[in-house]
Design a protein that fits this description.
The complex is a heterodimer of chains A (114) and B (187). Chain A has 3 helices and 6 strands; from the N terminus they run E-E-E-H-E-E-E-H-H. The longest helix of chain A has 8 residues, at 37-44. Chain A has one domain: Folate-binding superfamily (Folate-binding fold, 2-Layer Sandwich), CATH 3.30.2270.10. Chain A is globular and about 45 Å long. Helices cover 17% and strands 29% of the residues of chain A. Chain B is 22% helix and 34% strand. Classes of the chains: A alpha+beta (114), B alpha+beta (187). At the A-B interface, strand 2 of A face strand 9 of B. The complex binds zinc ion.
């Protein structure tokens, strides 16, 4: 079971209390009525679905109820850090090298198997 | 005759009326009826609301305040569950603060089960993933969390006693699951 650090409860809690809530840091346009359909589609529907580091919104649904943001690795499922909603993306340069060394990806462990 | 029919309709029963169970390690009982509100307010209203309620609304995660059968439980940074075991009018109490807030009467949305005994924490942990050791969850600690698939609010009222608040429609599920876990807690 994953433990996720809630920045509002200020402690790690079981993943059972949380729900993922899509990508983080998506700015809502202020000129929605003037946008082209393509621009609106890009804002509203299109997401990167990155492999590796991603920034997501999470909600401590069965806890404090707050939305917050998380930097998570989609390959290892590891949460690199979590931070309160409204804060900018944290600088992960100090976090990433340490975690990457411990991440067991499919490619690293299985793809070269004979 | 019409009066009698009206009186009959007004009779309220607890959703778990008559329920009892548990084991020697963790006894289960239905909490007495209480009034409850879901209270939301910004930080600038906390002092006035505390004065109106006669207790200090907690502002620290997982903490509660209790006074004369009235309990205020921190649920989130701007959200509290207030319970009055003497069935006082909590809506009127917070309204007297004259500060902007939101209060919803949930007295009948929730019901509560008291879990008591040396195995109380073990019984609740049968479906709840939180660390209920006294170090992590001391007397007075509270939290909204889950019991298997149901949302509950936990309040530790004594070292060996928890109040488990749940929605009334979930109460057959919560009580049955706790009864099962209480049996296991005795082993
Ligand atoms: Zn939280």
């Amino acid at each position: 079971m994953l433990l996720i650090y809630c920045p509002y409860c200020e402690e790690e809690r079981s993943e059972l209390e949380f729900r993922q809530a899509g990508d983080a840091h998506i700015a809502r346009p202020t000129n929605m009525t003037e946008m082209t359909d393509e621009d609106f589609e890009a804002f509203f529907f299109l997401r990167d679905n990155v492999k590796g580091l991603t920034f997501e919104r999470w909600r401590h649904l069965n806890g404090c109820g707050r939305f917050f943001n998380a930097a998570r690795d989609t390959v290892s499922d590891k949460f690199l850090t979590t931070y309160k909603a409204g804060l900018p993306r944290p600088d992960l340069s100090t976090l990433r090298p340490a975690t990457e060394a411990t991440v067991e990806t499919y490619e690293a462990t299985e793809s070269n198997a004979k | 005759m019409a009066d009698l029919i009206g009186a009959e309709l007004a009779t309220r029963t607890l959703p778990l009326s008559g329920f009892h169970g548990g084991s020697a390690a963790a006894a289960l009982s239905v909490a007495a009826p209480a009034t409850r509100i879901s209270l939301r307010a910004k930080p600038d209203a906390v002092a006035a609301l505390s004065g109106a309620l006669g207790l200090s609304l907690p502002t620290k995660a997982k903490t509660s305040a209790s006074s004369n059968g009235r309990h205020a439980l921190w649920l989130g940074p701007d959200e509290w569950l207030v319970i009055d075991e003497n069935e006082a009018d909590l809506i009127a109490a917070v309204a007297s603060s004259n500060m902007l807030h939101s209060a919803t009467d949930i007295s009948h949305r929730n019901t509560a089960i008291i879990v008591k005994g040396r195995g109380a924490a073990v019984a609740i942990n049968g479906g709840c993933p939180q660390d209920l050791s006294l170090a992590a969850f001391p007397v007075g600690a509270c939290s909204r969390t889950v019991l298997a698939k149901a949302e509950i609010v936990l309040l530790r009222t004594a070292e060996d006693t928890f109040r488990v608040e749940c929605w009334r429609s979930f109460s057959p599920y919560v009580s049955t699951l706790l009864a099962e876990a209480a049996e296991d807690a005795g082993n």
